[in-house]
Amino acid sequence: MKEKGRKAIATNRKARHNYAILDTYEAGVALVGTEVKSLRDGKASLVDAFATVDNGEIWLRGLHIPEYGNGSWTNHAPRRTRKLLLHRKEIDGLIGKIRDGNLTLVPLSMYFNDGKVKVELALARGKQDHDKRHDLAKRDAEREVTRELGRRVKGMR
């Protein structure tokens, strides 16, 4: 019986803080059996992961999927390079965008979509420290405004 819907495995929470997200893509991942079993246990880390373009193909590097506990000598290497599965037009478009500007491909999340492992990949530009501070200040200001509006609606002020 197939699963329906989207079940999260791992998210890269720091990515939205460290990068300005320009565009997102959904890509499949070429995995071996013990990797899928380990992912079904909910074990993966996208902390140091990034994607590169080599010979017209997109590869995910630095993704950590721990070895499957019940695996034998056929277990996988935890940090091996994994191929991302995208349409040729998407790959060509990404290659052009990456070569034009100083953009990078960052995985935002990994999830099961109808039983298949997918990665949400973002075309992103790195943020400077002052950009990060500006975003934090903006978020705090918006939070204060909504708080104040809530108080006025309730008649507290």
From TrEMBL:
Sorted alphabetically, the Gene Ontology BP terms of this entry are: trans-translation; trans-translation-dependent protein tagging
Q: Which CDD domains match?
A: SmpB
Q: What's in the keyword line of the UniProt record?
A: Cytoplasm, RNA-binding
Annotated stretches, region: Disordered: 130-157
Q: Where in the cell is it found?
A: Cytoplasm
The answer to keyword Metal-binding applying to this record is: no
Q: What does this protein do?
A: Required for rescue of stalled ribosomes mediated by trans-translation. Binds to transfer-messenger RNA (tmRNA), required for stable association of tmRNA with ribosomes. tmRNA and SmpB together mimic tRNA shape, replacing the anticodon stem-loop with SmpB. tmRNA is encoded by the ssrA gene; the 2 termini fold to resemble tRNA(Ala) and it encodes a 'tag peptide', a short internal open reading frame. During trans-translation Ala-aminoacylated tmRNA acts like a tRNA, entering the A-site of stalled ribosomes, displacing the stalled mRNA.
- Record's protein name: SsrA-binding protein
Chain's gene name: smpB
